[in-house]
């Protein structure tokens, strides 16, 4: 068990851990895409966090099935079982995948993580959340499935899937006094997740305040702006210049992009190393970071409601502005008339100070 350091004078939070575990369960209803995505993070890289290369962080012990050095089985499950018994603290619980409703599973179960040591019966994801979340110093939901339910929670699903806050309640608080920290994305943007996790770790070390979250429990500094506000195609929207097919570099609102109303920083940040991001590479935004995804944004390739109205309103203004800017651009592409090789000075130079 790791003990907390004594708070320094003026320190606002009465904690500060030298060592912490990250128990990452990806047995929610998911594709493990968030774990795979996080391996591409560089700000910081997950290996830099685990190997102690990020200054000021506690020593981190990561338990993730994809990244685990164990051979699996009981060796991998050991820290999870110890934490459930209250013998491993402190730890951060990371959940990947949506949470099924095991109250409607009939005679079976929807998803499990290991077996009960006495009965051999599968231990459901819900069992682990019930036993780990109340003991966790912080709880982080990785990806849209874990945050809001995602694909598995769409209309017509038989599992009754939901997000972690739906399961634990939006008023849930960890032992560290934190609400659930939601980092949505399908999959999660790698650096968004690692930056958020690093903030939580600095907070655990006693050197940072709690991460600021919005009303949907997302990090404010990452999800405070819309896709449109960071999109390199946004200038075309202002000029009323819209793409008619997916080969165009222009604004894609008319061919299904939801960017103007979606909270996400991917066009600004890119995907890996600042490169990529849906609209940046010709893809439309399908709102995968939003709580209503996917139901409220389907069919994906259809123009969003309001898209025809907004594009119609901006079109005459945009056409006029585009024409005026074209004239100005033409003028700006012309050199001043005094740049010549004739035998006279026409630049307007007037040495009035001379006698």
Helices, strands, pairings?
Blueprint: E1 19-25, H1 33-38, H2 46-50, E2 59-63, H3 73-84, E3 91-96, E4 112-115, E5 122-124, H4 125-132, E6 138-142, H5 144-148, H6 164-168, E7 181-183, H7 190-205, H8 220-223, H9 227-230, H10 234-238, H11 266-269, H12 307-332
Parallel strand pairs: 1-2, 1-3, 3-6, 6-7
Antiparallel strand pairs: 4-5
Q: TL;DR?
A:
[4Fe-4S] cluster 2 binds at residues 228, 231, 251, 257. Heterodimer of a large and a small subunit. With 355 residues, this protein is an alpha/beta fold.
Protein model, in words:
This protein is α/β, with parallel strands linked by helices. It folds into two domains: about 20-220, NADH:ubiquinone oxidoreductase-like, 20kDa subunit (Rossmann fold); about 225-295, Cytochrome-c3 Hydrogenase, Chain A, domain 2 (Irregular). The protein has helices at about 35-40, 45-50, 75-85, 125-130, 145-150, 165-170, 190-205, 220-225, 225-230, 235-240, 265-270, 305-330; strands at about 20-25, 60-65, 90-95, 110-115, 120-125, 140, 180-185. About 40% of the residues are buried. The chain starts with 18 loop residues before the first strand and ends in a 23-residue tail after the last helix. The strands form two sheets. A five-stranded parallel β-sheet has the order 2-1-3-6-7, with helices on both faces. Strands 4-5 form a two-stranded antiparallel ribbon.
Q: Average pLDDT across residues?
A: 91
Class from secondary-structure proportions: alpha/beta
* Annotation field: number of helices: 12
Percent of residues in helices: 25-40%
């Amino acid at each position: 068990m790791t003990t907390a350091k004594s708070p320094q004078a003026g320190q606002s939070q009465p904690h500060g851990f030298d060592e912490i575990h990250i128990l990452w369960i990806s047995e929610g209803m998911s594709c493990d895409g968030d774990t795979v995505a996080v391996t591409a993070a560089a700000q910081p890289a997950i290996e830099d966090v685990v190997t102690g290369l990020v200054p000021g962080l506690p020593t981190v012990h990561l338990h993730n099935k994809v990244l685990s050095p164990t051979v699996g089985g009981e060796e991998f499950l050991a820290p999870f079982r110890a934490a459930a018994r209250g013998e491993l603290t402190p730890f951060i619980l990371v959940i990947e995948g949506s949470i099924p409703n095991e109250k409607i599973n009939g005679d079976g179960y929807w998803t499990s993580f290991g077996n009960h040591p006495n009965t051999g019966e599968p231990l459901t994801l819900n069992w682990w959340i019930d036993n780990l979340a109340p003991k966790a110093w912080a709880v982080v939901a990785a990806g849209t499935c874990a945050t809001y339910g995602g694909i598995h929670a769409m209309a017509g699903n038989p599992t009754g899937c939901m997000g972690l806050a739906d399961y634990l309640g939006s008023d849930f608080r960890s032992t560290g006094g934190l609400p659930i920290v939601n980092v949505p994305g399908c999959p999660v943007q790698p650096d968004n997740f690692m930056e958020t996790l690093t903030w939580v770790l600095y907070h655990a070390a006693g050197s940072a305040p709690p991460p600021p979250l919005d009303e949907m429990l997302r990090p404010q500094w990452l999800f405070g702006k819309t896709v449109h506000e960071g999109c390199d195609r946004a200038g075309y929207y202002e000029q009323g210049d819209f793409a008619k097919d997916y080969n165009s570099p222009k604004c894609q609102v008319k061919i299904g992009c939801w960017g103007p109303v979606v909270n996400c920083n991917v066009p600004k940040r890119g995907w890996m190393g600042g490169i990529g991001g849906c609209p940046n590479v010709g893809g439309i935004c399908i709102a995968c970071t939003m709580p209503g995804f996917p139901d409220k944004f389907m069919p994906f390739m259809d123009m969003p409601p309001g898209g025809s109205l907004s594009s119609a309103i901006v079109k005459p203004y945009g056409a006029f502005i585009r024409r005026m800017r074209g004239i100005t651009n033409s003028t700006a592409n012309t050199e001043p008339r005094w740049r010549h090789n004739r035998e006279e000075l026409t630049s307007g130079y007037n040495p009035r100070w001379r006698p």
